[in-house]
Amino acid sequence: MPKQLGEYKQDRAWQETSNGANVVESAAYAAPGSGEVVLGVWLLPIRHSVHGSWITRGERPELRANRSFTTALGRVVSFDSAFYSDGITDSFVGDVMCTSSSCLPSQLNDGIHVAFRSPRNFSMRGMRAVPILFRVESLQTDLSKSATHEALSAQAERFLHEVDFAQISRTFQ
User: Fold this and answer.
1) Residue 117 in this model has a pLDDT that exceeds 80
2) The whole model's pTM is what?
3) Which structural domain range is residue 57 located in?
4) CA within 20 to 30 Å of 150's CA: 10, 33, 69, 141, which one?
């Protein structure tokens, strides 16, 4: 994981394992005046959605939609994003699948889409789509859920503006 993304510096990095295999590599980043943001990469050469994982664990998003953010180099990337609230922590989470040249949300769920394109490849090195996620969290406060969602979304927007997702994908090919 990059040591620094714009003004965001890596605080810590870790890997998560399942059945003895590394499945996710993550890092937490912080900048002055910003809370912590986690960036993670799914390591296995298969399709993966953070929301599918959270739903399997019993988490239910309060709001889920594709949301576009301007990332590094002025690229606009659409993320499958969701707001979660478990009674203690509020989270704004998004994921995307990126090759070294383009990104698509992990799930296209906002209307009818007609497209002629090759299916995403998750296994061929150098060409594979790499599932990438971000997460911004805060302890619940007296703010409304709408205000909390907006605050976390703004924090994500500030962070994502510094991330070059094509480069992250190239690193994890």
Assistant:
1) no
2) 0.85
3) 19-171
4) 10
Please count the CA atoms within 13 angstroms of the CA of 115 that sit on its side-chain side: 9
Give yes or no for residue 99 having a pLDDT over 70: yes
Residue 96 lies in a domain: yes
CA-nearest of 44, 42, 8, 48 to 28 is 8
Structural domain contains residue 136: yes
Tell me the per-residue pLDDT of 1-22, one tens digit each, with 9 for 90 and over: 999 999 999 999 999 999 999 9
Contact (CB, 8 A) for 168 and 41: yes
Within-domain flag for 7? no
Q: Are 97 and 128 in contact (CB under 8 A)?
A: no
Q: Give the chain's domain count.
A: 1
Q: How far apart are CA 53 and CA 114, in angstroms?
A: 27
Q: Which pair of structure tokens corresponds to residue 141?
A: 């406060």
With respect to residue 8, please indicate whether it lies within any of the assigned structural domains. no
